[in-house]
Amino acid sequence: MLIAAGDADTALAFVEIGALVLGLALLSRLAGRFGLTAIPLYLVAGLAMGEGGLIQLDVSRDFFEIAAEIGVLLLLFALGLEYSDTELRSGLRSGLAPGVVDMLLNALPGLALGLLLGWEPLAAVLLGGVTWITSSGVVSKALSDLGRLGFRETPAVLNLLVIEDLAMAVYLPVVAALIVGGSATTTVTSVAIALATVLVILLAALRYGRPFSNLVAGGSDEAFLLMIFGITLLVAGIAQSFEVSGAIGAFLVGLALSGKAEERANQLISPLRDLFAATFFLFFSFQIDPADLFDAALPALGLAAVTALTKMATGWYAAGRVGAAPKGRMRAGTVLIARGEFSIVIAALGSQLVDGPQLGALAAGYVLVTAILGPLAAKFSDRLPLPPRLMRRRVPSTA
Fold first, then answer.
1. Cβ(88)–Cβ(162) under 8 Å?
2. Considering just the CA atoms, what is the radius of gyration of the chain in Å?
3. C-beta separation of 128 from 74 below 8 A
4. Closest C-alpha to 144, from 134, 135, 152, 154
5. Which stretch, 301-315, 316-330, 340-354, 360-374, has highest mean pLDDT?
6. What is the model's pTM?
7. Which of 66, 101, 337, 399 is buried most deeply by CB count within 10 Å?
């Protein structure tokens, strides 16, 4: 037998893992009942069971650590599946100007706050990334749940998400190389290698995506799932060995799939993604002392208030470029407020920095607030009052 009947540590690990996963299931059902993402609840659960929390894990921490890493990869892989090569090229053409506005309006508040708090510049840059990137998962779920996929402003929202995700393909490897540190020559070399690796994988995904999809599409569901899962881990590992975020490697694997392979991957990988992603959010907040989160509450609330407004301004501008009416522009702005998986990934990169604990706590509080505020604001955006001067502008629209 692989597991001895009297192995107390194994039995305790099973109890811990089973109880936590069952708890995550209940939290997910609770969030669904209120029409919200479960991410904030997962973060709160992790705080209760991590450093300085109410309950301390005994033997299963290593399991959750590797499961959390896999969760990041599957989140980004699934995100890559959302985009075809045609949509990617179209998004690059039409979303570049709003993407620049998005970066300036939303990264600068985080960067500025980090510097005002006296953090080292790299930690402040990471906080800028936390405030910049909208949660694609929360936005896509909100658009679907609210029945807005066919609205005029929705392509502008999706194009912004494409630009953000591609920007992360550059941002993450660069900051990862900077975190590793070393001499100036070593750092520049690491950044160059990281960017070259991303470029090669991206071009290969766009150029050879269809042949690759045809190659892996056959076989049983079991064989297909094992192949896709194995390729994702393999590419992520290779990317990470070149100082590129493994998550970006996983994203580009998802991007390369199209047609039947994309449809099968979406169907088969979703349960795995949801399971491992939940453990990622849980494990992230395991490492945060609730006392640090309390200290970060005021900055997190202030930052959430400022960047909610800047995201609304971003969505207003982007939707206006596609001819949406004021109500449609307001819908676009509010649906972009939520931050989530990418923000946590970015904060996790800085966990070993001197200001890493403060960064993690502020990011967790910030995501808690925006992940709740965003879906609620999107749901009730049509009821928000607009200044009369904005309502006078008539634009033919489905809004």
1. yes
2. 21
3. no
4. 154
5. 301-315
6. 0.74
7. 337
